[in-house]
TrEMBL record:
Protein biosynthesis in keyword set: no
Protein name according to UniProt: Uncharacterized protein
Transmembrane segments: none
PANTHER family documented for this protein: OS09G0560450 PROTEIN, REGULATOR OF CHROMOSOME CONDENSATION
InterPro entries given in the database record: RCC1/BLIP-II, Reg_chr_condens, Ub_ligase/GEF_domain
Length: 186
């Protein structure tokens, strides 16, 4: 694919790759998951350590700056955070830790970070949410959280129904979607 923003983990001079190739800097790592946004990538190793690379214009890699990153770099999560699950949206990233906390960074223009505002955040910041999280997924400008209570919570751009609540509303905080209660969400 195209890697002009560094999302393939190669130097910019190698901005295109037409066949699967190992990513320099991840040799010897046991990578167990990978997720991609529009042009940024996050991978997680077997120990729950994340590495990010690629487009970082909104701070979606969580490094405290907005420069693109062309090689895998350890995510700047708070000390002791072990990643259980990670998802990338268009220009944001959401992490669920093994203790059920949620951390987000990147573009917040539609409330997709869940912090209650529309601000970009260039460092991972813990989300104040009333439930421990089990899983997270991201769309381009929205985020979906599955709680350990087996309920679904959404935030972000919902003007065409992405929030799943039957309304055309956007939310800047994770909002419980009661219509999905009892649907067997695991």
């Amino acid at each position: 694919g195209i890697g002009a923003q560094g999302q393939l983990g190669y130097p910019i001079s190698s901005s295109c790759c037409t066949c699967p190739t190992s990513v320099p800097g991840l040799e010897g790592q046991s990578i167990v998951s990978a997720t991609c946004g529009i042009a940024h990538t996050v991978v997680v190793d077997k120990n729950g350590v994340g590495f990010g690379f690629g487009w970082n214009h909104h701070g979606q890699l969580g490094f405290g700056h907005t420069d693109n990153v062309t090689s895998p770099t350890k995510l700047g999560l708070p000390a002791g955070v072990v990643i259980q699950h990670v998802a990338c949206g268009g220009a944001h990233t959401a992490v669920v830790s093994t203790d059920g906390h949620v951390y987000t960074c990147g573009s917040g223009n539609c409330g997709q970070l869940g912090h209650g505002d529309l601000q970009d955040v260039s460092e991972f910041r813990q989300v104040d949410v009333s439930v421990r999280a089990a899983y997270v997924a991201c769309g381009e400008e929205f985020t979906v959280l599955v709680g350990m209570d087996h309920k679904v919570y959404t935030c972000g751009f919902g003007q065409v129904g992405q929030m799943g609540d039957g309304k055309l509303s956007s939310y800047a905080r994770f909002t419980h979607i009661p219509s999905l209660d009892g649907c067997g969400v695991v």
